[in-house]
Amino acid sequence: MRKHFASIKGSALSFQLLRLLLFSLGITLSAAEAAATGADTRPVFAAGIKAFQAGDLQQARRHLEAARAQGMTSRALTYNLGVVYYRLADYDNARRMFRQLEHTSNHTLAVYNLGLIALAQDDPARAGELFLMAADSEGKIAHLARAQLARLRGTHEPGHWHGLLAVAVGYEENIALFPDRAATALDGAFLESVGAVSGYAFRRDQQGLKFDARFYVREYFTEADFNVHLLRVESAWVHTLGQERVHLGLGGDQLWQGGDSREQRARLTAGLSTPACTSDPVSARCQLLVQAEQIVAAASRYRAYQGQHYRLETRYRAQWGDWSGDLRYRFGYDARKDWRTATEFFSVSPQAHTLSAKLGYQVTTALRISANASFRHSRYRDPHRLQTPEARLTLVRTDQRLALGLDAEYRFNRTFAMTAKVTHTDNDSNLARYRYHRQTTTLGISARL
User: Fold this and answer.
1) What pLDDT score was predicted for residue 24?
2) Do 337 and 307 contact (CB within 8 A), yes or no?
3) Is 234 domain-assigned?
4) Least packed by Cβ within 10 Å: which of 19, 51, 57, 167?
């Protein structure tokens, strides 16, 4: 059903197009829905769609309500009933239907249509809130929501804030990234937590000031020296040009390791997001991001990592039916102080090319699984000078890192979900001391606030 994006009405859609979209949505039941509804109800449902096509809304209502009374419970029926109720100006029943879809994968579609109902009932403030929620997603419905927001121009659109809180337990092999040739390894369990909040502090017309704050914590039960705490704060001026979105932002990080402050970062970011890279029936969006960071070491032992980091990233995200994909390329360039001793030199300033891909599938409304892979090639700017038992070695370090992962998410409702992740990483290097493998497994629960 997610292949067809219909909306119940709007000044941008004609009634004929609406009828076509409704018909497509109505007859395209998934195999699971068709089996669940039973053969006896499908003719009644089809008769309701036919009556709607003919413009007989009352007859369409009678048939669709009869299908529901006979036991049909599909999302297609719920959505089509909402459309018919809306066309008949029965807004209370229409609202009740679309609210039943709020906690499903059709959440954005439901929210957008609830916004249209608010408009029809002369409540532009509530409509703006709902359209803003829909516009923060991706795809065709998000584009329609932004168009509706444009029509509400001249009023201060209320900001909508999102939050995420997640807690997980996990186990990691080779915490310290010991090389494969090492005689021992360091493994251990950890507790991990993630929190984020984002939203518009101000938004008017196609412009707004967006704020993001995040924290990440990983604490090992037995290896406290490897504990990591990260706090990130960012703000960006966002400007929407039609379906394109441009942003310019400032941000900063504070990183702690082993209980001590390790570094601070100041960041300047510019980005462009556009749907121009797609065509039906795929809903997709392309992004370009440029970033520059200044890193300041908080202690002398981390002084080698002080310097600048630059990043260029392109990203393609797509949704087609129950499948989703994410493909990105990242180029990173570092200009750090590097690490020198009396006899050795270690470069910590790589040029890195990273290609990553993720493919996800919505098994059921609640269960989603995905597989991901990334490959990073790094070449360090200056040659390492290493003292070995045999001789003094001078060599430019190059690494190839491959990471493979499997994720699963089971969503109990729109708020709570359980997650499981397994990641395996192999790093191959022309310097034996940097060859390692690592495997991490986590199980957690998350809440969208």
Assistant:
1) 37
2) yes
3) yes
4) 167
In a domain, 2, yes or no: no
156 — phi, psi (to 5°)?
-75, 115
pLDDT tens figures, 315-365 = 998 877 678 889 999 999 999 998 888 888 999 999 999 999 999 998 887
99: tokens are 């609210």
281 plus 379 within the same structural domain = yes
Which pTM value belongs to this model?
Answer: 0.67
| Contacts made by residues 39-46, CB under 8 angstroms, sequence distance 24+ | 40/70, 41/67, 41/70, 41/71, 41/72, 44/70, 44/72, 45/72, 45/76, 45/77
Instruction: Please give the Cα distance from 300 to 293 (Å, whole number).
Output: 20
Q: Sheet holding 384-387: strands in order across?
A: 339-340, 345-346, 384-387, 392-395
Range of the domain at 19: 15-151
243 shares its domain with 355: yes
Report how far residue 40's alpha carbon sits from residue 98's, in angstroms, rounded to the nearest whole number: 25
pLDDT digits (tens, 9 = 90+) for 256-266: 999 899 999 99
134 three-class SS: helix
